């Protein structure tokens, strides 16, 4: 069954589906007020030392959700995977769309690929995906690292991250799906590239479970996880 990630927010909603790799947890971008109220009450009931840390994490979560919604992100998942030193690496996977009504989406995609390739710091490669044509752009840049809460003074911690972006479109659609993965684990860039490619190969503009139709003009959803969409992390 396709799990809806977002309710329609405009008269025209892009329809596409994707698989979530092993080790990723979907982030609620529109949490119910009751859920937030219960969370705040739980934090207020914590001991003072633990409460201060929990409040920083809550502010970080609120800031992430606000930023993602401001950029029209339609789906987000947080990944935690074991590293070689007995700890964990974190990553953020996001899904959004670029709409190109009245224009050939393939040409828009080509222009996006050319613009990305003109950046000497980006590694760009064309992709032929099951859903259609696409490209992968990868780079290392400094930004606010995913999963790192603000400092005590409220400042955001910046560090180098690996960022991979897949943009793809397909026949019969004017939408370009953009899948982005960001992680501070630079030494595992190859593994995360494989994760991103697996997700890109799972993107579909057709409901993978046609026997279970969703209501409305369109939907953004998570497809059932298959072997092809599982993360190389196992």
Explain what this protein looks like in three dimensions:
- Residues 209-234 are annotated as: Disordered.
- Helices cover 26% and strands 32% of the residues.
- It has 234 residues and is of the alpha+beta class.
- The protein has two domains: 14-27 and 77-229, Protein Transport Mog1p, Chain A; 30-72.
- A seven-stranded antiparallel beta sheet has the order 3-4-5-9-8-7-6, with helices on both faces.
- A hairpin with a 5-residue loop joins β8 (158-169) and β9.
- The two termini are 23 Å apart.
- Residues 1-12, 212-218 and 224-234 have low confidence and may be disordered.
- End-to-end gap: 23 Å
Rg computed from alpha carbons, rounded to a whole number of angstroms: 19 Å
Class from secondary-structure proportions = alpha+beta
How many domains, as an integer?
A: 2
Number of helical regions: 4
Q: Average pLDDT value?
A: 77
Q: What sort of overall outline do the alpha carbons produce when their principal axes are compared?
A: globular
- List the strand order in the largest sheet: 3-4-5-9-8-7-6
- Name the CATH class of the largest domain: Alpha Beta
Give the second-level CATH assignment, the architecture of the largest domain: 3-Layer(aba) Sandwich
Q: What portion of the residues fall into strands of 2 or more residues?
A: 25-35%
Main β-sheet, in a few words?
Answer: 7 strands, antiparallel
By CATH, the topology of the largest domain is: Protein Transport Mog1p, Chain A
Find the count of extended strands (DSSP E, 2+ residues): 10
Helix content: 25-40%
Task: Please trace the helix and strand order, writing H or E for each element.
Answer: EEEHHEEHEEEEHE
Q: Are there runs of 5+ residues with pLDDT below 50, and where?
A: 1-12, 212-218, 224-234
């Amino acid at each position: 069954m396709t799990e809806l990630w977002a309710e329609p927010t405009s008269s025209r909603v892009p329809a596409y589906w994707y698989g979530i790799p092993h080790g990723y947890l979907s982030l609620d971008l529109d949490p119910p007020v009751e859920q937030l109220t219960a969370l705040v009450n739980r934090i207020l009931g914590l001991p003072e030392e633990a409460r201060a840390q929990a409040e920083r994490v809550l502010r970080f979560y609120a800031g992430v959700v606000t930023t993602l919604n401001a950029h029209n992100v339609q789906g987000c998942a947080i990944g935690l995977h074991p590293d070689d030193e007995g700890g964990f690496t974190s990553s953020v996977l996001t899904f959004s769309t670029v709409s190109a009504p009245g224009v050939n989406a393939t040409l828009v995609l080509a222009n996006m690929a050319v613009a990305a390739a003109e950046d000497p710091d980006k590694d760009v490669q064309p992709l032929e995906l099951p859903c259609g044509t696409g490209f992968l752009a990868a780079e290392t840049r400094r930004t606010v690292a995913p999963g790192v809460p603000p400092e005590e003074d409220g400042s955001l911690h910046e560090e180098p991250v690996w960022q991979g972006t897949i943009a793809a479109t397909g026949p019969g659609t004017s939408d370009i799906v953009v899948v982005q993965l960001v992680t501070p684990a630079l030494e595992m860039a190859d593994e995360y590239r494989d994760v991103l490619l697996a997700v890109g190969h799972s993107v579909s503009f057709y409901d993978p479970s046609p026997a279970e139709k969703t209501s409305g003009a369109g939907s953004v959803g998570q497809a059932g996880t298959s072997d092809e969409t599982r993360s190389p992390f196992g």
